[in-house]
Design a protein that fits this description.
single chain
Length: 61
């Protein structure tokens, strides 16, 4: 699976959660399941898209 696909799936899963604390916990759990290299790339994608004012990505972070 490519980084974009992993990132999109993560955002879909986490964004659907109502509470910020729950989103934070789930995000951390999902990132821990990935290798360090993939985690870095996913976080990079999340930050790039959040900085581009994409609300879903901003909410996930």
């Amino acid at each position: 699976m490519e980084i974009e696909e992993i990132t999109e799936k993560l955002v879909r899963d986490v964004y659907g959660l109502k509470e910020k604390v729950t989103r934070t916990v789930v995000l951390g759990e999902r990132l821990r399941e990935l290798s360090t290299e993939v985690t870095v790339e996913v976080l990079n994608q999340l930050c790039i898209k959040a900085n581009a004012n994409q609300p879903r990505y901003q909410e996930v972070l």
